[in-house]
């Protein structure tokens, strides 16, 4: 399982882009995790699924609300990662008004979740293998903080917790 001090696993995530530009075409675009994190501080939070109750009511809205504060303390980008396809993540991002604040990154085949070891098997509930709920701060591809939720909980992966950790990381 991924831990503080580890480099993020190699791999790719997809993002649905609605406006052509910066070398991105309209539609799903694939991004290499190592390239996208190089030289940056990234706040990553992952969750079991788009449009699910806690994710839609608390997790994503918290990061949208705190996006400016996170950027003020040195976070270059905020990523929401979920085992959903890029079309679903794009539609959910529109609903959650994440544009310019949170990148909605799709891990459609759970390859990233599996590589991190932070999976949640919801096969018995008809949802297959998903990502655990967690948050982390990543600097230049290296995990600096990691907050993994206990099953069914939402206590440590919220935006306020990560904001406080980002403030401490900036001060150090």
Automatic annotation (TrEMBL):
Alphabetized Pfam families for the sequence: Redoxin
InterPro entries from the UniProt entry: PRX5-like (IPR037944), Redoxin (IPR013740), Thioredoxin-like_sf (IPR036249), Thioredoxin_domain (IPR013766)
Catalytic activity: a hydroperoxide + 2 glutathione = an alcohol + glutathione disulfide + H2O
Residues annotated as signal peptide: none
Domain of life where this protein originates: Bacteria
EC number: 1.11.1.27
Keyword annotations of the record: Antioxidant, Oxidoreductase, Peroxidase, Redox-active center
All copies of domain Thioredoxin, residue ranges: 2-168
The family this protein is said to belong to: Belongs to the peroxiredoxin family. Prx5 subfamily.
Biological role: Thiol-specific peroxidase that catalyzes the reduction of hydrogen peroxide and organic hydroperoxides to water and alcohols, respectively. Plays a role in cell protection against oxidative stress by detoxifying peroxides.
Entry-linked PANTHER family: PEROXIREDOXIN (PTHR10430), PEROXIREDOXIN-5, MITOCHONDRIAL (PTHR10430:SF16)
Full protein name: Glutathione-dependent peroxiredoxin
Provenance organism: Piscinibacter gummiphilus
């Amino acid at each position: 399982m991924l831990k503080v001090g580890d480099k993020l696993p190699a791999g790719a995530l997809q993002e649905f882009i609605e406006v052509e530009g910066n070398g991105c075409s309209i539609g799903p675009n694939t991004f290499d995790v190592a390239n996208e994190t190089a030289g940056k501080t990234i706040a990553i939070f992952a969750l079991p699924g788009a449009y699910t109750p806690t994710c839609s009511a608390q997790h994503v809205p918290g990061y949208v609300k705190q996006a400016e504060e996170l950027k003020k303390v040195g976070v270059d980008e905020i990523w929401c990662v979920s085992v959903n396809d890029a079309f679903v993540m794009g539609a959910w991002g529109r609903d959650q008004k994440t544009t310019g604040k949170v990148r909605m990154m799709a891990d459609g085949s759970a390859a990233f979740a599996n590589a991190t070891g932070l999976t949640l098997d919801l096969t018995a509930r008809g949802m297959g293998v998903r990502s655990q709920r967690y948050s982390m701060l990543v600097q230049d591809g290296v995990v600096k903080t990691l907050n993994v939720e206990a099953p069914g909980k939402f206590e440590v992966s919220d935006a306020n917790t990560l904001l406080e950790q980002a403030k401490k990381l900036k001060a150090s």
